[in-house]
Specification:
28 strands, alpha/beta, seven-stranded mixed β-sheet, Rossmann fold, 24 helices, seven-stranded antiparallel β-sheet, single chain, about 725 residues
């Protein structure tokens, strides 16, 4: 994992905003070379472009220079297309000449094996020593549409639509497809790059650059991996506070370490649960397709933040209104009923056969009255229960008989949208390419971005709503961090699996509410403890390395007298002895009432992201229902509270069917305390689990605990 130096960071502007460029290895024999040259020329680049080839006096119809040293000036950027074996000496020559930024198109490095890795490391070492800001190798270059600078090795479709979306991809092959789809949907870009091998500059370095770029409003990422999760976390938090949304399509899966399987928690995480949870917590909008990536990014660039989740809908189609309502429910976007004054006002302008409700179908009468849609939109936007509106409208595909009238209708609607007191989002009915005529009408009328289709569009809206809430919370919190105390509290020499008694005692010593328990080596001791607590009681198995006691019948409930306790103790000891277990004992606990809700609170370690908190429906239901939410550590009580509300079982905590509700603040604080302890245990902790955590109106209490230690990571 490479961390760029401060000098390399200072040279990023020379890399992405050069005033002069040299194409090293330019040749008429390479389409990469010709594409790059033509792209720079057609972008309107106002700087100087030099072609370097020691064996040709002319390349691409222009003068060629034999070497970097022969150039008439020190160039800001070299674009390197020479054979793999001479890349290093080419970079050395460029640096000796005064250049401090490079794009390396050449492949054959870390992606091809051991020898390639050696060559790549030489480049990394040289770049660090010299302060060279380097993109690649094995990359396509970049498109800085905002500045009209496009040293990019693949063809760029024209016209290149400039906008406010910065795109960073860990895939060169997908770059052209992404660019093509963006253009087909009028998603204007400010910047695009395919990272190549990320030998020097990484995705996070480019993200940092785009956060600081005033011409980029949203960052779209295609990620195969998150190489430095700590750096990604820091930069994502910075972007969230700065109001720069990040939309990410992450492919691949996060796998938990083998030790995590020892806890029920591991089964709740899922294949890609950790990444999804981390992104959600950081305010990164996760998507599942390239289409959703760009449509969502386009919406962010168009509307920025939304003030709430209550949506008003205006459409000329009854069928579309039903689809919108269904998809909004799927995505958690509210469509509240209109206020009486809104219903009265809308009734005055729509045909008598229209039904006035939210979503509002103004009917096909819009063909007769071209003003109806925008007038209805203006009234809906005034409703006190509406945070934003959507207008179901499609740009025309082909030119009709009245071009001027069409442009005027879209122009007046655009003006009406600008004057509304709440945001309005135009949304197309189906996802399809915008035609040249549709683009012409949009440009001539000044009509805003049209969201691509109801299905993808409502998905995108839900992402913007969620991010807006995260952004407001981040701004309110300021630069503070949810970080727990950094003081490490891991006991020296802890290994393997702690017994329940050890784990519970440790949690209790650090402030967690834990059910009382007593160790017993004999049936008489167990009975004495039971008498002390009062019946009914619970007797559980204790042995060195014993994880799931219930798997061996090691949990005996509802013991009502001494005979029950004796039988339970002796039976458990017999089973443990038959297993050859060492340290065989039992613990006795008072049995709590059946009211309340049993939760599982688990901490597992992900190889990439570190410790993660899992909260779900616990007890016997944990592996059956698999109802759980995840958060990365460190985590605040407020964040835990938000997570709990995401459980399907949340109504049980909130007083379903007449039950007394659990105090959510108390519950969240208790879970946050467990998470804080886990965070402070450091790298030695592999997994920690409280199952169940009993939550009721009377309070919160841990009834069982498990701690699994990793091998000493310091060795």
């Amino acid at each position: 994992m490479t961390t760029i130096t401060s000098e390399q960071k200072s040279n990023l502007r020379s890399l992405f905003e050069p005033k002069s460029i040299a194409l090293i290895g330019a040749t008429d024999k390479s389409s990469w070379s010709l594409n790059t040259f033509l792209n720079i020329q057609s972008s309107g680049f106002e700087g100087r472009v030099y072609l370097v080839n020691p064996r040709a006096e002319e390349v691409h119809g222009h003068k060629a220079y034999p070497s970097i040293d022969s150039l008439p000036e020190v160039v800001d950027l070299v674009f390197v297309m020479v054979p793999t074996g001479v890349v290093l000496e080419t970079l050395q020559a460029a640096v000796a000449h005064g250049t401090r930024a490079a794009v390396v198109l050449t492949a054959g490095f870390g992606e091809v094996g051991e020898e390639g890795q050696r060559l790549e490391q030489e480049i990394v070492d040289f770049a660090a020593e010299s302060g060279l800001a380097l993109l690649g190798p094995n990359g396509n270059g970049f498109i800085n549409a905002a500045e009209g600078i496009t040293p990019y090795g693949l063809p760029i479709g024209r016209p290149l639509i400039e906008g406010n979306v910065g795109i960073v991809l860990q895939s060169g092959a997908l770059a052209s497809a992404v660019l093509g789809f963006a253009q087909s949907r009028n998603v204007g870009i400010s910047f695009l790059t395919a990272m190549g091998n990320e030998a020097v500059l990484s995705v996070t370095d480019v993200m940092n650059y785009l956060i600081d770029s005033p011409k980029t409003k949203v960052i779209a990422l295609f990620l195969e991996s998150v190489r430095d999760t700590d750096e990604f976390r820091r930069i994502a938090q910075r972007a969230l506070r700065a109001g720069k949304p990040i939309v990410a399509l992450k492919v691949g899966r996060s796998e938990l370490g083998a030790q995590a399987a020892l806890a029920h928690t591991g089964a709740l995480v899922g294949d890609n649960g950790i990444n999804a949870a981390a992104f959600d917590q950081l305010g990164v909008s996760s998507v599942t397709s390239l289409e959703e990536l760009l449509i969502t990014a386009g919406l962010f660039a168009s509307v920025g933040s939304l003030p709430g989740s209550r949506m008003g809908v205006v459409t000329p189609s009854g069928g579309a209104s039903e689809i919108i309502a269904d998809r909004a429910e799927d995505e958690g976007v509210q469509i509240p009923p209109f206020a009486p004054e809104t219903i009265a006002a809308v009734t005055e302008i729509v045909p008598s056969f229209a039904t006035v409700q939210n979503p509002l179908d103004v009917t096909g009468y819009v063909v007769i009255d071209r003003t109806l849609t925008r007038r209805a939109l203006q009234l809906v936007a005034k409703d006190p229960g509406i945070d934003f509106t959507i207008l179901n409208i499609d740009l025309p595909k082909v030119e009709g008989a009245d071009h001027a009238g069409t442009v005027e209708m879209f122009r007046q609607t655009a003006l009406a949208i600008d004057e509304l007191s709440v945001p309005a989002i135009p949304i197309g009915t189906a996802l399809s390419d915008i035609t040249e005529y549709g683009r012409r009408v949009q440009n001539e009328s000044g009509f805003p971005y049209v969201l691509g289709g109801i299905d993808r569009g409502i998905q995108a809206i839900s992402r913007v709503v969620a991010w807006s809430e995260r952004h407001r919370a981040a701004v309110a919190a300021g630069d503070g961090d949810d970080a727990a105390s950094n003081a490490n509290i891991a006991p020296a020499g802890a290994t393997g699996i702690w017994t329940e008694h050890q784990a519970a005692q440790f949690l209790a010593d650090h402030g967690v509410s834990v059910v009382p328990s007593r160790l017993a080596t004999t049936a008489a001791e167990a009975i004495a403890h039971a008498e002390e607590f009062g019946y009914p009681v619970v007797v559980k198995a204790v042995a060195d390395g014993l994880g799931h006691k219930s798997d061996i019948g090691g949990v005996k409930l509802n013991l009502l007298n001494a005979d029950d306790v004796r039988a339970a103790h002796d039976g458990i000891i017999e089973v443990l002895s038959g297993m050859g277990a060492t340290g065989a004992q039992t613990i006795v606990q008072p049995q709590r009432s059946s009211d309340g809700v049993e939760l599982i609170v688990g901490i597992v370690r992900d190889p990439a992201w570190g410790l993660a908190l899992v909260v779900g429906l616990g007890g016997i239901w944990v592996e059956i229902m698999k109802d759980a939410v995840l958060r990365m550590l460190p985590v605040s009580a407020e964040e835990v509270k938000t997570a709990i509300k995401g459980l399907r079982a949340y109504p049980l905590l909130n007083g379903a069917r007449g039950a007394k509700p659990v105090d959510l603040d108390v519950l969240a604080a208790e879970i946050a305390a467990i998470a804080d302890i886990a965070y402070r245990l450091g790298d030695r902790l592999e997994a920690l689990e409280v199952n169940p955590l009993r939550a009721s109106a009377d309070g919160v209490e841990a009834l069982d605990a498990l701690v699994t230690w990793a091998d000493d990571r310091s060795k």
